[in-house]
Each structure stands twice: as C-alpha cells, then as structure tokens.
Amino acid sequence: MPRSEEDQFGYTKEERELSYTAKTGEDMARHARMREERRRREWEEDVKEQWPSTKAGQLFTQLAETFTACQKLIEQHPHIPEMAQIADGERHDVFTMLRDNLEKANQAPRCEKRKSNGQMCRAPKMRGEKYCCMHLALEAARPTKFSLPALDDANSIQVAVDRSIQGLVDGTLEEKRATKLAYFLQLAMSNVGRVNFEPEEEGAESPQSP
After folding, report:
1. Alpha helix positions (H), the chain
2. Whether 132 contacts 121, CB under 8 Å
3. Of the candidates 106, 76, 79, 105, which has an alpha carbon nearest to the alpha carbon of residue 92?
4. CB 205: neighbour CB atoms within 10 A?
5. Is 201 strand, coil or helix?
6. C-alpha of 101 from chain center
7. Average pLDDT in the 201-210 region?
8. Is the whole model's pTM more than 0.70, yes or no?
9. What are the C-alpha distances in Å from 23 to residues 15, 31, 38, 50, 98?
10. Are 134 and 141 in contact (CB under 8 A)?
C-alpha cells in the first residue's frame, strides 16, 4: 500500500487544509489524532503486506501451526504428553513452557492506556507498572516542556500551531491552555501583516497629521 504524501510536519494536503479550520484546542487535538490514526493504518497495512515474506513471519506461522496441531493432538490423545516426556523431554519442555506462558499472558492484568480510538490497550502490563512495555517506552520519550517559536511571521505561526497540536497529543499542553493559545495564534495571524518592528531609516520623514 503506497504511503500518503506528507509535508514537513507529517500532514497530507487534506489534513493540512482541515487544520486551518481549527477553532479550539479540541479541534487541533482531533485533527492530530486523525493524522496519527491514518499513519497507523498505513503502517499496519504495510506490515500485513510484508510480514508473510519475512523470515520472522514464516517462523511465527510455523510455530503457531505446530503449536495448534499439538494442542489438538493432546485433546484427542491425553496420554501424548507423558510419551513425549519419556521419548523427547527437551522438546516437550519447550512446548510446555510455551503453553504455560500463553496461559499466564491471557490471565495477566492489562495495560491501562487508552488508545486514540477510545479503546483500552489489551496488552499485558509490566509488573508493578500501569502500562505495557510499548506504552511505557512512549511515556518515557514524551517531552517534558512545551515551547513555542517567536511569532514573527506566518511560517513561525504555523510551526506554533503544529507544536500546539503535538503538545495536546503527547500531554505537554493542557486543553484549557490550548484553547486560549488557539485564540492568541489566530490573533497573531491576523496581525502579522500589519505590524513592523524594523527601525525607521535615518532621515525618513514622519507622516504628517492631516
């Protein structure tokens, strides 16, 4: 599946045009979530297409098929595990370990992170933690400080908008502050063409009052 064409901030043309209509911090966050969900879908489609041809995909498929076949065989012939232990103890132990680990994983407490679609993550959480391994890594990589560039031209204001959206997504910008910030960014955009902080040239005549 071909990836969507993105600009330097990771937005498609349609997503960029939609971001211009944002009026509140919640609008900005919703547009950012749409972008992340679209990128996630594209990544998942890539994985589905490429996985069967990878060595890992082939090995996992063989493992799953073999494990399922063993499970069915044991259900039909309960004496098989005892025979396997006598004849080939090491391989039987591997099967037993896999079976026990799967049962433990199914019974393990689940990650408490809520995904962008509103559903809870169902991966087993790490011992003593609230989240799974992946979401713990994402939390550790989250920025701890929110900052904006100087709002001195249209380009810098657009950068500020993108940072605000990302701040809402990664949690470094509160929604109430984002709502106020959206107002000031709109004000800055409307003023950017009317202000000039450049010093006047020497000898320039001041405009006379009518």
Report:
1. 13-19, 25-50, 55-76, 80-87, 89-107, 133-140, 154-170, 175-191
2. yes
3. 79
4. 6
5. coil
6. 28
7. 54
8. no
9. 15, 11, 22, 40, 52
10. no
